[in-house]
Design goal:
Layout lengths: L5 H26 L15 H31 L1 E3 L5 E3 L7 H4 L2 H30 L12 H23 L4 H39 L4 H36 L9 H26 L4 H4 L2 E5 L2 H4 L24 E5 L22 E3 L5 E3 L11 E2 L7 E2 L3 E3 L4 E3 L12 H4 L20
Antiparallel strand pairs: 1-2, 3-4, 5-6, 7-8, 9-10
Helix pairs in contact: 1-2, 1-8, 2-4, 4-5, 4-6, 5-6, 6-7, 7-8
């Protein structure tokens, strides 16, 4: 299976290099590469996340090596003219010895990269199954059967892909076909199983809301749910074309691999699906929060301060028919105080709150700009009329009303991993006494 023109693999090399640049940019803004440092020994803190981080980054690094090197070799070897007079990429048997000796090592590199890719997606699948199957008793990830299934899958993938290359090494033309067949079959199976997670995820989100999940956690889970939809589509775009090429390459005749259009078309589709799904995985494994990075948080504006704010007159009036008088509490997004902040502190005698402006649009969404007042540390605020109002309130665009989320996040039934959820690989052990994440 010497299919694939130099141009087809050049697309892989370009995508791999561009994604590498974005990976460096993203990890620098994520935590200044702290996720790449190995901390204390043992499972925690951070050992599991470090292993998954290295596995994911190894996938991309090895793909860059494979795609760039193979593209260079294919361009050096060029094409051959068939008896019918058409051009066809030169078969591996006709390569120069100086180039041919590098083909098998590159295939080993590619098989190891695919094994690491299977490990990362298998971990996410088993972790979501772990959360979806929570019962009345809180289980630990590292003691669960899902974790043992992930360990088994990691061993099988880590040994199976290189062994496939080792067994098929004597026939270099079909060796790549066997790698495509085994790798695409495993990846496609993982993707199909992930459809079960997507089907159960809406129910899981509703349970998190009922059990008192923080708004930031719920929003992050909703974002992951939407990202996983797109990633599943691109993973099918990655596995199905390579599976077709593999089945055609291991059997007797090779009508697809010998067709210049279909071989290049399927290889390019597989490359696009591979790197786009890896891009989405990066956003899921290392999620950035611009709200937290900029130091913003949701807080309550006391009524005594809100009464002083004059609403701008406009022809469009926000729909507030669902907001009861007892919950008509304005909210805003404020800059939380930070020890790393370079902004000057308020001078003595300066007003505690300043520059409070609300803007409403025709769709009923509150448009609020940055504020300079700090969030009230108390859990309740006593306005001028003597009635206590609980804090904070948030504006729900579906009900077009101010709603109060659960702020304690200790409701029975909400798993501690969910209460402190950040990403599927950012997992800490839980102390048995109070079920709080170990630090």
């Amino acid at each position: 299976m010497g299919s694939g023109s130099p141009t087809a693999y050049l697309s892989w090399a370009i995508l791999a290099c561009l994604f590498s640049c974005f990976l460096v940019f993203h990890l620098w803004n994520y935590d200044r590469f702290q996720c790449l440092k190995w901390s204390e020994s043992g499972r925690q803190p951070g050992a599991f996340k470090r292993f998954m981080s290295y596995t994911y980054i190894a996938t991309l690094t090895l793909l860059v090596v494979f795609s760039v090197a193979l593209t260079f070799i294919k361009f050096k070897e060029g094409y051959v003219i068939t008896p019918e007079g058409s051009l066809f990429p030169k078969p591996i048997e006709l390569y120069a010895p100086s180039h041919k000796k590098w083909v098998l090592p590159l295939l080993f590199v590619f098989s190891v990269a695919w094994a690491c890719e299977i490990v990362t997606h298998w971990e996410e699948l088993t972790f979501w199954l772990f959360l979806l199957h929570q019962g009345p008793r809180t289980r630990l990830w590292f003691d669960s059967w899902e974790f043992r299934v992930w360990l088994l899958g990691t061993v099988v993938a880590g040994l199976g892909m290189p062994l496939t290359t080792l067994i098929a090494r004597r026939q270099l033309d079909t060796c790549q076909a066997w790698i495509f067949l085994v790798g695409s079959s495993a990846s496609m199976t993982t993707t199909i199983l992930f459809l079960y997670v997507l089907a159960r995820f809406p129910e899981f989100l509703r349970r998190v809301k009922v059990d008192g999940g923080e708004p930031s956690i719920v929003l992050r889970l909703v974002m992951f749910y939407q990202l996983n939809f797109g990633r599943v589509l691109f993973r099918f775009l990655f596995t199905i074309p390579l599976f077709i090429l593999a089945v055609d390459g291991v059997q007797g005749s090779h009508p697809i691999n010998q067709d210049p259009f279909w071989s290049d078309f399927l290889i390019m589709l597989g490359g696009i699906g591979c790197f786009v799904s890896s891009f989405i995985t990066l956003l899921i494994f290392f999620p950035r929060s611009l709200t937290q990075e900029l130091g913003y948080t949701t807080a309550l504006i006391p009524t005594s301060i809100a009464d002083k704010t004059q609403m701008p007159t406009s022809n469009c009036v926000p729909n507030t028919q669902h907001i009861s008088s007892s919950k008509n509490v304005p909210t805003t997004i404020v800059r939380a105080p930070s020890v790393h902040s370079s902004e000057p502190s308020q001078s003595e005698g300066a007003p505690e709150y300043e520059d409070i402006t609300h803007r409403h649009s025709c769709d009923g969404h509150v448009r609020i700009r940055r504020q300079t007042w700090e969030q009230t540390p108390d859990t309740e605020v006593q306005p001028a009329n003597g009635q206590y109002l609980e804090t904070p309130y948030m504006f729900d665009r579906h009900s077009r009303g101010l709603v109060r989320p659960h702020s304690d996040s200790i409701a029975i039934g909400l798993h501690p991993y969910v209460r402190t959820f950040r990403s599927p690989i950012d997992i800490c052990d839980i102390e048995d006494d109070n079920h709080s994440p170990a630090r």
